[in-house]
Design goal:
The complex is a heterodimer of chains A (about 550) and B (about 160).
Chain A: E1 2-4, H1 5-15, E2 20-23, H2 30-38, E3 44-47, H3 51-65, E4 69-73, H4 77-91, E5 96-102, H5 118-121, E6 128-131, H6 135-150, E7 156-162, H7 163-167, E8 169-171, H8 188-200, E9 204-208, H9 210-214, H10 218-228, E10 232-234, E11 249-252, H11 259-267, E12 270-274, E13 294-299, E14 313-316, H12 319-326, H13 336-349, H14 362-373, E15 378-381, H15 385-393, E16 402-403, H16 413-424, E17 430-435, H17 436-442, H18 445-451, E18 457-462, H19 467-476, H20 492-499, E19 502-506, H21 509-521, E20 526-531
Parallel strand pairs in A: 2-3, 2-4, 4-5, 5-7, 6-7, 9-10, 9-12, 10-11, 12-13, 13-14, 15-16, 15-17, 17-18, 18-20, 19-20
Antiparallel strand pairs in A: 1-8
Helix pairs in contact in A: 1-2, 1-6, 3-4, 3-16, 10-12, 11-13, 14-15, 14-21
Chain B: E1 2-11, H1 16-27, E2 30-38, E3 44-53, H2 55-67, E4 71-77, E5 82-93, H3 97-109, E6 113-117, E7 121-128, H4 130-140, E8 145-150, E9 154-157
Antiparallel strand pairs in B: 1-3, 1-4, 2-3, 5-7, 5-8, 5-9, 6-7
The chains are: A alpha/beta (about 550), B alpha+beta (about 160).
Chain lengths: ~550, ~160
């Protein structure tokens, strides 16, 4: 059947199982929006306030489902507004297809109105990108985009479509959705070597990351931990894979991870890294990370092996495939002495914040709202102190539940991501945990949540300062608070109401509970302004470049 | 710092050179030279890249290049089992007969050819392995070099 480029785009999206996309119209995508208008029963298009919100929403949708998120923007500024969102997805290996319109092919390269070379701009922040020059290539190019986004280590792919291609016609041949079946070969010898290294270890530790979430390998990992009696620590990208309450869980590792996890890695004689990449927020000092340990690295991306840290042994595989194959080779073990040592570190060294119900302590805020939202709630965060408090105290026990910008650290990510998660799971409670700094970056999307009746609850941890930078200035810059005290007079209650939502201001736990109780009953967005002391710090902390010897814990 | 020769087969698409050079720029790898040219298959191009670094950097360069969708194959060529060559043109000021004779003698020594001659200048051409080109340029710079252009290395496995 003959179809134009815009209809082909819709057909391929439907064919690939896409039912929701996030975007913003404009001149170069008028034909596409016309096709979306005619197909509104097949594709639900969500109109955001800003293309950045659309990109973060597509990202949040992907993180909440494991499926490919799709966003759409017009040429020029529409396309450049996606850039931060695409880079965010790239750094966290999130599958996304970003579609941009461009000026007609005859106008390309002439600095035409709203023309940018978005393929060039996004080259270093996409797995791949395409400029579609002929309508005949469009369908297969889009299918390739989905395949690339999902395959191997997932990531964003951009498809740039000039306006004339969206109106040109050609024969459209339907196809099946792209399916990715990858088989990472692991030899018997590799498995025996690793099993042998595990058997020889007296103080083994597993450190795992987002790759375990992507491969949904939490159960297999827990089986390995129990069988070989190996404690494990997770990165922020792997919150929820294994409950932190498990006796073998050391909690989060890294700059704001637990002290016991840092010491366990420091003293380990075998470190098995699964689906993580020794980032500078975990291996704060790469030359002195796990200094006594032999290191095994399992990652789906071969280029991660020996990138940040030289390792002793490596296997290229997804986490689930590796763990399933390894399990039969591993001998049951008992590292009672090692566990006792870790238990002692836990008891004596781990940071325990002090409760105070008369004010709002960050850890109590997070614990209270997470508990009231329930065990199935999704938590999306922005970036900064509140993000770390959320990571430390949210208590998430499932994957796709804690949604945060880890690699890029994008302030302003949270609201869009929360919307994406809410569209993916209308039945679930979605908490957006943010701060006054991050919220000001993309609070416009509150209007989107009102338009679509999204009951997102924003927990705004308001300390009147740009908290994380403020904390560093306190610790390392002799309290020279350069540009971190914005003196904003924003009234968040009125702001929420002005957008058409509901706002609360709370100063103690009882007020917070009452506001949450109200918010959980509502059908539209709520902002809860939680007043926090600006002196509150994220602890413990290993300073950049530091080791266990430099931990700040009071 | 070592120098490594990489022979890379890529899909002959618009933008593939930009993708490869963007990768090198982004990750801070040092390129000594990079050449791209067609192959007998119009869909495929070959790049010859000289990278400076050490073994871990070489490993990263190869793996990161292989992650690019349009890169089909990356071969690290050892000098002993590959042919590699580079072309250089040098325009030299040569106004007196004595200077011209000295330049001609030096060129003969290095198997370089004088391919253009004007009243006040000569253009020498040399095609050889990069180390010989470096040596030639080293001695020829005793004369006044007006302009110089090197092609970058192209290489193939023996």
């Amino acid at each position: 059947m003959v179809k134009n480029g815009s209809e082909i785009l819709v057909e391929v999206l439907v064919e690939q199982g896409v039912d929701t996309i996030f975007g913003y119209p404009g001149g170069a995508v008028l034909n596409i929006y016309d096709a979306l208008y005619k197909n509104s029963d097949r594709i639900h298009h969500i109109l955001t306030c800003h293309e950045q919100g659309a990109a973060h929403a597509a990202d949040g949708f992907a993180r909440a489902t494991g499926k490919v998120g799709v966003c759409l923007a017009t040429s020029g500024p529409g396309a450049t507004n996606l850039v931060t969102g695409i880079a965010t997805a790239y750094m966290d290996s999130i599958p996304m297809v970003a579609i941009t319109g461009n000026v007609g092919t005859s106008l390309i390269g002439r600095d035409s109105f709203q023309e940018v070379y978005i393929a060039g701009i996004t080259m270093p922040i996409t797995k791949h990108n395409f400029v579609v020059r002929h309508v005949e290539e469009l369908a297969d190019t889009l299918r390739s985009a989905f395949r690339i986004a999902m395959s191997g280590r997932p990531g964003p792919v951009l498809v740039d479509i000039p306006k004339d291609v969206t109106s040109a016609e050609c024969e459209f041949i339907p196809a099946e959705p792209v399916e990715v079946h990858e088989n990472y070969d692991i030899t018997k010898e590799q498995l025996e070597t690793i099993a042998d290294m595990i058997a020889q270890a007296e103080r083994p530790v597993i450190y795992y990351g987002g790759g375990v979430e992507t491969a949904d390998a939490g159960d297999a990992l827990l089986e390995l931990m129990r069988k070989a009696d190996i404690p494990s620590a997770h990165t922020m990208m792997a919150i929820g894979c294994i409950p932190d309450s498990d006796p073998l869980s050391l909690g989060m590792i890294g700059m704001h991870g637990t002290v016991s996890a840092a010491w366990a890695v420091e003293r380990s004689d075998l470190l098995i890294c699964i689906g993580a990449r020794f980032s500078d927020r975990v291996a704060t000092n790469p030359r002195r990370f796990a200094p006594k340990a032999r290191i095994i690295h399992i990652d789906i991306d071969d280029a991660e092996i020996n990138k940040n840290i030289g390792v002793d042994y490596a296997v290229v595989s997804d986490a689930e495939n590796f763990l399933q194959k390894l399990l039969p080779y591993v001998q049951p073990a008992d590292h009672g002495q090692w566990r006792a040592q870790i238990e002692e570190w836990r008891r004596t060294l781990d940071y325990i914040p002090k409760d105070d119900d008369s004010v709002l302590k960050p850890h109590q805020v997070i614990k209270t709202v997470a508990e009231m939202a329930g065990e199935n709630a999704i938590i999306a965060t922005d970036v900064g102190q509140h993000q770390m408090w959320a990571a430390q105290y949210c208590g998430c026990n499932k994957i796709h539940q804690f949604i945060t910008s880890g690699g890029l650290g994008t302030m302003g990510f949270g609201y869009g991501a929360a919307m994406g998660a809410q569209f993916a799971h209308p039945e679930k409670t979605v908490l957006h945990i943010t701060s006054d700094g991050s919220f000001h970056m993309n609070m416009n999307e509150l209007a989107t949540a009102v338009s679509y009746n999204l009951p997102i609850i924003t927990i705004l941890m308001n300390n009147q300062v740009l908290g994380m930078v403020y904390q560093w200035q306190t610790l390392f810059y002799e309290r020279r608070y350069s540009q971190t005290q914005p003196e904003r007079k924003t009234d968040y209650v009125k702001l929420a109401e002005a957008f058409g939502g509901r706002g609360f201001r709370v100063t103690n736990l009882a007020e917070l509970r009452a506001a949450m109780k109200d918010a959980l009953q509502r059908t539209g967005p709520v902002v809860i302004d939680c007043r926090i002391d600006r002196a509150e710090r994220v602890l413990p902390m290993i300073p950049a470049g530091g080791t266990v010897d430099d931990i700040v814990a009071d | 710092m070592q120098k490594y020769i990489l022979s890379v087969t890529v899909q002959n698409n618009a933008g593939v050179l930009a993708r490869v050079s963007s990768l090198f720029g982004r990750r801070g790898y040092n390129i000594d030279s990079l050449t791209v040219s067609a192959t007998t298959d119009p869909k495929i191009s070959r790049m010859s890249i000289i990278v400076q670094g050490d073994e871990p950097i070489l490993e990263q360069v190869i793996k990161q290049m292989l992650k690019l969708e349009e890169v089909m194959r990356v071969d690290h060529l050892e000098e002993e089992d590959s042919c590699c060559s580079e072309l250089v043109f040098v325009k030299l000021r040569a106004e007196t007969g004595a200077t011209r004779d000295s330049i001609r003698q030096l060129c003969t020594l290095y198997d370089a050819h004088i391919i253009e001659s004007t009243d006040d200048a000569l253009i020498a051409e040399l095609s050889d392995v990069p180390s010989r080109i470096d040596a030639f340029l080293d001695v020829i710079s005793n004369f006044e070099v007006i302009e110089m252009s090197r092609s970058g290395v192209t290489a193939i496995r023996k």
